Every structure is written in C-alpha cells, then in structure tokens.
Amino acid sequence: RKRFMTQTATPQTMASLARIWAEILGVTQVEPEGNFFALGGHSLLAVRLVACVQEELDIGDDLEISDVLRHQTLAAFADHVQSLRNGDHRIHFLRPATAAALARPEEREA
Question: CA of 100: how far to CAs of 1, 13, 48, 69, in Å?
C-alpha cells in the first residue's frame, strides 16, 4: 500500500483540474467536493483523466490510475496532484515480515 504526503492544492492547480474534470465528465462545472464516479466517471474516463493531467500539468508518470480511486473528490485529487507537482516523494509502507520469512532456513517448515 502506498501513502503520500499531501499538500493543499494551489488555486491554479484546482482551477486546471476542475476544467479537465468538467471536460472529461461532460459537465459544466465541478465543485471541490464533487466525486469523479458520482459525476459519471468510470475506468475508461479515469484513464483519460490521468493522461490529460500528466500532459497538461507536466507531472509525468507519477500519477497513476489508482490515484483516481484513492482520491475520488476533486479537492482530494487536486491536493494529491499538488504534492506530485511539488516533487514530494512517495512513502512506501512495507508489509510486516512473517515469522517464517525471518526464521533461519533450518527452522522453516517444509
């Protein structure tokens, strides 16, 4: 599971993303609390969204389709995108090792 440090989106980032969301979803306006999926979004539109945001906001491959699932509202998505634009690094949380993985080879069950 990946976690990200987030920052509040700038007004410019929020406005750019609101415009992109509106275009992709075919709506006139998206409020910060607007949910991508409740507004008619689906997996194919999420792919388009990520591609548009990567290109228009120049954030490269750091934005992933799964980010749309994790950050479903415009405000949450914008905060996440802002973190990526600011170069915040992803923080990876590793799963705890099992006792078997930590045991010496002779102690492991066959």
Answer: 22, 47, 43, 34
Phi and psi at 90, nearest 5°, equal -70, 140
Q: Give the amino acid at 11.
A: P
**Single-letter amino acid, residue 41:** G
Residue 96 has pLDDT above 60, yes or no: no
pTM score, two decimals? 0.74
Residue with tokens 């994790």: 70
The size of the chain, in residues, is: 110
| Residues 36-49 pLDDT 10s | 999 999 999 999 99
Give the type of residue at 27: V
Q: Is 18 helix (H, G, I), strand (E, B) or coil?
A: helix
CB proximity list for 108: less than 8 A, separation 6 or greater: 100
